[in-house]
Amino acid sequence: MVTPSFHPAVGGVETHVLRVSQGLAARGHEITVLTHADEPSEEMLGRLHVHRLPRGGWLAAWRAARGHIAAADVVHCHDAYSFLHFYAPSSYLWPRRPVFVTFHGYESYPIAAEAIRWRRFVRRRARNALCMGDFICRWYGTECFAVSYGGVDAVEDPTPLPAEPSAVFLGRIAEDTSIMVYLEALSILKTEHNRDLPLTVIGDGPLRGPAERYAEAQGLRARFLGTVSDPKEALTRSRFSFVSGYLAIWQSLALRRPVFAVYENELKRDYLLGFPEAEETLVICGGADELARRLSRHIEDGSLADSMAERGAQLAAENSWDRVADLYLSMYRAEGIG
After folding, report:
1. CA atoms within 13 A on the CB side of 313
2. Burial of 124 (0-12, 13-18, 19+ CB in 10 A)
3. What are the structural domains of the chain?
4. What is the rounded distance in angstroms from the CA atom of residue 21 to the CA atom of residue 333?
5. What's the N-to-C CA distance of the chain in angstroms?
6. Is the pTM of this model over 0.90?
7. pLDDT digits (tens, 9 = 90+) for 180-213
8. Are 275 and 148 in contact (CB under 8 A)?
9. What is the Cα–Cα distance from 37 to 5, expressed in whole angstroms?
């Protein structure tokens, strides 16, 4: 498994690589993870061999990774960057190893033409691919073996919804997660609907400062906690979940927390509507006014979320990380490996 970042770093790709690797290792496969680090190291993380290679240009990264790649039966790169930075020369040299790729997320909107070209280049050089979301196939033009949306750990006896309405935002505090739209919606909710909804913000990023200043100026009851290793506790203390990343959506659904997600462009709209049974399990809004209206209705009538929460929890229970690991194995076996 080749990834630009890995556990204990916090993020969707980091979690995905960790949990899939653990699932494959539990099935008896020997898994090595290659990643970057400020301080190079080697370690065993459970049954995973983790090699943290020094940061540098692509040539230095490839040289550091080359021996590990040559010793593997299968190389799996996560996103185009990993292929280009750690692996690309090996696709032209012996011994050639079957290489696969998982495409996660998107770079920006609008998508840069260069980003599309590089993903298509990597897809042509890879034996096969998985896409985390069907929007990737459409927007990047990358064919894949299958589409997945990641997985989630099972939750037994989720905590009941708290009596007092509150919300949690979970994600990077940046433009692509629409943090300012959520805050604007809370301001509208307060001034036009006379509802003051407390918000806990988990995450960090370039918009944290502006977001904190906006919340203070609008008199919002918003707490900014920064990055936390496990957001489960904050999710269980809240009635509503403001998330838009697939793994955070799954975790919220597993905990039976209603998910409110917003989009500001057509790409993010496709990203959200492509989620399994999105219109039945998520509240998807196209702006702050709509989000404020939907929140007001849910605060007034708690039963609105009952059927959504029930179906969302069922979907989450069916979408374990073991199922995602099996998808990886199915792709390898379809190519005659294993």
Report:
1. 16
2. exposed
3. 12-151+320-334 (3.40.50.2000), 167-317 (3.40.50.2000)
4. 17
5. 16
6. yes
7. 999 999 999 999 999 999 999 999 999 999 999 9
8. no
9. 8
